[in-house]
């Protein structure tokens, strides 16, 4: 355990070791601080990598159930896959085409890639050490076994061999390498084997080498029948099966070595929006090419001979810094199947039932919203009222129109089913689907087709701007007037993620809000000048400027001797102008409390500049996803929820909505922000050098988890 901690500290030190802040207290006093100097900014990619490391740390958290600790270790793998597919791929593409771009930290892409390689090699080694020396042994104690080939009993081996012939052989296609069979084009992140062969095949060929792509249709984990085992849950890897019986795929030849490997490719889809005439058709074409982008990472079994590793490196044009030798399966993410193969509830999170406010339990949510606005916090409170509102609208003969944005949702989700029902019943249904939601593009294309077939008007937003806003508008005929009901949220219209991500939902019958939401939809579906909104702020038009204005107002209050207070909870903080405004506010004496889950370019704790800024990240059972902005305003606070993080892409290059919350709902948001600032067990504190330190209760202090407190308050 000590060695693991030392490795973690080494990774953190490498992450920011050459980024020490070059501003001393004397310099701040004597000269105005240039807020654009690179030393004031943490590199975005390295900050993102730090978040992934914090996720991995949860695998060692003994207060978490054991199977959930395994899940955190696997989520780290999934996160790292995407990090390489998108972040690393972007840096490599810049170098490849000579388009090097630097951020406010002024770090060259080549330097960024060097740092990433150093940190990732340390951290991946540590990940497998945690798996092999901590997680697997503890699972073994709980009678959950991942059985290696050498431990199979004769009966088990016979069963596995039958499985190999019946399930694997019919779908597997080994490829011998020779002039007529060049190295095959392997799919991104697929499991493959490189095989050393001796002898000649039926045609007299003596190739010496072959590739076995593992069929993607087959599970990577297989459960052995209980009658063949001495109790417990017994699992084997597909890779073990292929290793064991690889020689049967090459009859008459000798398999001298079989080693698994995996290639990660550039999966970012880029195309010139100005040249796009039909976004949907363009995306359909790009989706296939995503599987075969340029290679960015090679993972190999650490027992693979060096000459084979060099062969693979040459084939994929990768070097040693991009090669990862691992002590275990190369495709750890696929181990998540253990959730479906092992039923051990005592080793999982305790189940709970999300709360539902009494006023939203009835059959007429419209009447409830006429009486009062409703604010829900998922997953602690149920997402069902949002779905029920749409269902009621679909069936209500007085509802004449429904408008909805969809970013990530399922093709067969309850939300989509209700929209389909509404359209088929003759209502005017308009759906704005963001096709370019990363890794959900294919699902969204199918979703668009289903909605169009039902009679919905489907549009894809605005060329050049992703539609990331979360908004629903229902228009209902009541008497001789049309009444608007709105839903605005910080998260997606996805019932599954609403059980895993923390997000706010705001339901209202406020007609000014409804009119604003209507105008936002007009901008998305039609064309015209910017429309003035009464109660909403939207990106890329007014949200960014409003936030800068409110930050500066707190600075003016502090300079005049009044208390200044800012609290922000978002997923990422990278936008330079907002960071500079926060630095200025801190220097003026404003108390700034930032709850940033992932990337953060701002450096807290710089004497005389950001020593009034505290930055923390919460990592726990649920993925923190809410976006909340609080400005003290000398005792008359302004509180906002939004779909937008404080990042360039959200504030300047996306369609986003921010909405102000008043009265008791604003007070509630402040109280819940305070929970996160009080958290002393699932919170991590950002340091000036870019590293993070986990918070622990002080001596005599009680353990306090914000997520647990919210569960206790709202759920059953």
UniProtKB/TrEMBL annotation:
Domain Polyphosphate kinase C-terminal: 364-528, 537-707
Keyword Magnesium applies: yes
Residues of the Polyphosphate kinase N-terminal domain: 41-146
Residues that bind Mg(2+): 408, 438
Record's function text: Catalyzes the reversible transfer of the terminal phosphate of ATP to form a long-chain polyphosphate (polyP).
Residue span(s) of domain Polyphosphate kinase middle: 155-337
Enzyme Commission code(s) on record: 2.7.4.1
Protein name: Polyphosphate kinase
